[in-house]
Amino acid sequence: MTTREDLEPLLLRLPHQEALRPSGGDLSFETAWEIRAFALAVAAYQSGQYDWPQFQQALIAAIQRWEESGQATPWRYYDRWLEALESLMTDAGVVSPVDVEDRTRTVLQTPRDAGHHRAHREPVAVDPARS
Amino acid sequence: MTTAETSPSPTASGVRSDEEIAARVKALEAMLIERGVMTTETVDRLADIYENEVGPHIGARVTARAWTDPAFKERLLADATSACAELGVGGLQGEDMVVVENTDAVHNVIVCTLCSCYPWPVLGLPPNWYKQPAYRSRIVRQPRTMLREDFGLEVPDSTEIRVWDSSSELRYWVLPQRPADTDGRSEEELAELVTRDSLIGVGQPLHPGREAR
Q1: Nearest residue on chain B to A112, judged by CA atoms?
Q2: Can you give the residue ranges of every domain in chain A?
Q3: Would you call A6 an interface residue with chain B, using a CB distance cutoff of 8 Å?
Q4: Residue B164 and residue B90 in one domain
């Protein structure tokens, strides 16, 4: 079972430590998708899809593309992280950019938690006081 | 959020909204799992390592404010979404939050009976047990017993237990009772006492001197 201690040597090799650890200490994430993207990249590495230096290089390259684009989009570390992961998975032939686009559209078109949109304004259960 | 960009249509390389990028991550995850690169369990376990880094400290901050500022507490209970927005805490559009207050007479606990709806902008990612069928069904049928047996939380018989079902339209979270003997504590010190479990309603805040980590 993977622990923080197992991950730390990997994480120390990544560029922009200040973006990984805004408060200087442990990693921190702003949104749920960031932590999910983080976990996907580590899981793909652990399953042998790539060596960690390959991920490191892909991330550096993604950041470089962003810089060369004139920084056209706001800086977000995990945007570049996701781009790095997608590029490695594309190179490995696991997914294609078109696949990812299509699937993303499907996800966006599927109502979140389908069938569970009604607001429940009363408690679903009450266990009354007994004394 | 910057609005400097005026590009008319976000493209693959353009500005993506949080919703779009969250969908993209979800899509990629689904494909990697289907294609045998990884399992859901692996991804969950890795995400769990850092689950506390994205989350309940925000709810803890809001709770500590409510404990120290009665007017804020009133606004929080009347309209949690906009009270949280006052503190810069927000979520996705259309996801209203309701805060239910614990008192001596009523203890509240939250669940999503169908899936795993959860007030994540405030509480971070749901713990795995929250998503399990065992919790989702039993907390509704036997709340008092489950709180005692599974979470070690003894709710006095004189206290009513209310279970609130979150949906994608309306997400609940619990305002726990301020621990005794905390007079004179600063808001920051109080926030240290608030645990994730106390915001779900399956635990109590820590007592002074037993701060988390």
Answers
A1: B168
A2: 4-99
A3: no
A4: yes
Domains identified in chain B, total number? 2
> Per the domain annotation, does B4 fall within a domain?
no
- Asked if residue B212 belongs to a domain, the reply is no
| pTM of the shown model | 0.61
Residue of B nearest to A25 (CA): B53
Shortest CA distance to B38 belongs to which of A14, A106, A41?
A41
Q: Between B22, B158, B168, which is nearest A116 by CB? A: B168
H/E run at residue A127: strand A125-127
Dump pLDDT digits (tens) for A40-51. 999 999 999 999
Chain A residues inside the 8 Å CB shell of B168: 111-113, 116-117
Say which residues have a Cβ less than 8 Å from residue B56's Cβ, sequence separation at least 6. Answer: B122, B123, B124, B194, B195, B196, B199
In a domain, B210, yes or no: no
Query: Which of B199, B176, B207 lies closest to B67, judged by CA?
Result: B176
CATH number for the domain spanning B136: value is 3.90.330.10
Beta carbons of A72 and B14 less than 8 Å apart? yes
Q: Rounded mean pLDDT of B165-184?
A: 90
Q: Is residue B8 part of a domain?
A: no
Q: How confident is the model at residue B17 (pLDDT cuts 50, 70, 90)?
A: confident
Q: Which domain holds residue B99?
A: 55-200
Residues of B with active-site annotation: 112, 115-117
- In whole angstroms, what is the distance from residue A59 CA to residue A77 CA? 9
Residues B104 and B174 in one domain: yes
